[in-house]
Amino acid sequence: MNEESGAILVLSGPSGAGKSSLIGKIIDHIGPTYFSISTTTRPMREGEVSGVHYHFVSEEVFKGEIEAEMFLEYAFVHGNYYGTSLIPVKQALKEGKLVIFDIDVQGNDAVQSRLADITTSVFITTPTLCELKRRLHNRLTDSEEVIAKRLAMATREVQRITEYDYLIVNDDLEKAAEVLISIAKAARMKIPTLKINEFIQRWEAQG
Ligand code: 5GP
């Protein structure tokens, strides 16, 4: 129903909850999608590639892009800037794609306030804080200081789960992926307010 106008799927949740693995698992099973690559001032982690995981830029470049109003939304997370560029998102929506965002709670708030009628939001987390600690330590990519910041942030973020349409507790990757596939398929069917009004007019005109 919504193939002409596209839709948005917001995924939020603590770093270490398995968002990236889940996205990797579902991406080939949910139809035409565009995964929004954010821009960040955070230093690149081992194994990350600029233009694939993020567009890595300096703070100066990021601030220039804010000035030029190039972001749909941006936020300051764990001491770094992260932002979603507007142009590729607009293009993907025009092509009727499901646009997937991996953004934090502030980003979800901003997207909801601008595009609520085509947005579905999902919060993904580990079963417990203890499990999140374990995963972040096993990942071996972040320093103790960064891990402590991420855990504090996660504790604040879970307080805002009520702002999301769905909660996925990722304790079994296969099951979580199955649930997320259903949500993504349903997200694509959301109808923008404008389209509903057009539909009602057409429906009545043929009475
Ligand atoms: P990480 O440094 O682990 O890649 O990401 C840290 C946090 O920033 C995650 O919660 C992630 O969802 C969030 N994030 C990544 N890109 C964006 C973005 O473009 N906008 C916002 N608001 N948050 C983002």
Task: Write a brief caption for the model.
The chain is of the alpha/beta class and 207 residues long.
Structure description:
Helices cover 44% and strands 20% of the residues. The chain has 207 residues and is an alpha/beta fold. It has a five-stranded parallel beta sheet with strand order 2-7-1-8-9, with helices on both faces. Strands 4-3-6-5 form a four-stranded mixed beta sheet. A hairpin with a 2-residue loop joins strand 5 (71-77) and strand 6 (80-85). The chain is globular. Bound molecules: guanosine-5'-monophosphate (5GP). Guanosine-5'-monophosphate is lined by residues 12, 15, 38, 42, 73, 75, 77-78, 82-84, 102-104, 106-107.
Regarding quaternary structure, how should these chains be classified?
A: single chain
Order of helices and strands: EHEEEHEEHEHEHHEHH
Radius of gyration of CA atoms, rounded to a whole number: 18 Å
CATH class of the domain at 7-36 and 98-205: Alpha Beta
Category from helices, strands and their pairing: alpha/beta
How confident overall, as mean pLDDT?
94
Distance from first to last alpha carbon: 21 Å
Features:
207 residues; alpha/beta; Rossmann fold; five-stranded parallel β-sheet; four-stranded mixed β-sheet; 8 helices; 9 strands; globular; binds guanosine-5'-monophosphate
Write the layout of secondary structure elements.
Blueprint (H helix, E strand, L loop, with lengths): L6 E6 L6 H8 L6 E3 L3 E2 L14 E2 L2 H9 L3 E7 L2 E6 H9 L3 E5 L2 H11 L3 E7 L3 H11 L4 H15 L7 E4 L3 H16 L4 H13 L2
Parallel strand pairs: 1-7, 1-8, 2-7, 3-4, 8-9
Antiparallel strand pairs: 3-6, 5-6
Helix pairs in contact: 1-7, 5-6
Bound molecules: guanosine-5'-monophosphate (5GP).
The site of guanosine-5'-monophosphate (5GP) has 16 residues, from β5, β6 and α4.
